[in-house]
From TrEMBL:
InterPro entries: Ub_conjugating_enzyme, UBC, UBQ-conjugating_enzyme/RWD. Residues 4-164, 292-445 form the UBC core domain. It comes from Coniochaeta ligniaria NRRL 30616. It comes from the Eukaryota. This is UBC-like protein. The keyword Signal does not apply. SMART domains: UBCc. Keywords: Ubl conjugation pathway.
Amino acid sequence: MADQSVFRITKELSDLQKNSDLSLAVACRDIDVRNVKALIIGPHDTPYEFGFFEFAFKFNKDYPRKSPAVTAVTTNGGRTRFNPNIYANGRVCLSILGTWRGERGEEWSAAQGLESILLSIQSLMSTNPYENEPGFEDANEPSDKKNQKDYVQKIRHETLRISVIQRLEEYLGLALDGSVATSAATKEDMDDAMDGMEDEANIPFEPFKDLCKRRFLWYYDSYLATVQQGKTEVKDGQSFTRMPFEGSSNTMEGKFNYSELERRLQNIKKALEAETESWAAEGLTPKYKDSTVAVNLQRQYEQIVETFKRTDTPHNLELEDNNPFVWILTYIGKPMTNLDGGLFRIRLFFSPRFPEEQPRIKFETRIFHHRIAADGTPCYFAPLSRREDAKSHIEAVLDALEEEQPPYDPRTLVNPEAFKLYWGKGDDRKVYNRRLRRSVQQSMEDC
């Protein structure tokens, strides 16, 4: 039974990791498949939008006959209740977990699994989470309407402050004033310390660090838009409203301060840009210059260049200053499309810890595109199975750029203005196409 349980968990993890769902991520240590970490990225158009919410799963030997134990990790150290069903102490109230008495037929069954639990939790992150509280599903009194609005406002603020800003500041070693507490030298010392640890269980396990950094760059403009919206709705220093169902130790207390959040978001963005730029210099240090990573990237670069020549691919790829950690791709717009005639310079930064840290890519030539952020960061999905293949990242970026009939997916909202026009009504798509063509024409004039 135990072996069957491990096999089932392993298969579910593999299936989820192969899935192209941009809002779910799972990971575990190789030595401990029963303890799983999961990340849910908050749904678009809810107060949880693009927040990073972590959960811990513990599978017992009776799984899947019995459900796993699930604990919310993103709770501000046990001080913040993000949802009527997600308590400050980490308790997740769901009938399928046996932590809440639901309707007949809603209890756990062996047909359910890790993904169904994650989707159930994600469904709690709704537009109006006030209604999740039992007895408040149909609350329509004037006081309820006000509470619903107040509840959404404080969840939106704390999603940004706790799940995004605090998490990224911790990853980057940032103090509240934006200063960097962890220097590059200290990072090397930490790497050396990790190399010396023989027991994997003693090594800090942060499987979502790189993912959250890259997604922050995707959603940065959306975070700023949330700040601007918040500033129009509440005043800095205004206290949160306590909900009728919140208790003294199971609540969301605090005060609004969107001006402070905006400053901290900007500091995180600067720190991420500095970190990305530092990879080029770090890669040329004695520690990494002749490393396996450097040799591998050099070989992959040469293979891609050879492939471009052999297949008459019009694009050009070169190393910046012969540095295998920084590639420059010159993209020629696809004929007979809105990109036709465009000439775009794209820079690919590789970390000395590639592929554990995935590449960060930026369009240096400005382009108005619904899959390219205003600062040039592309939204793309490279297959996890090819995470070591640099070519897969180039292909994925170009696929996102050239896709003519993409499915609607709000998780790719990296350029709010372009996204709104692309998926808008009436003549919005025509306006989008004109602005895209204008940026393509400008790229030719700037070259």
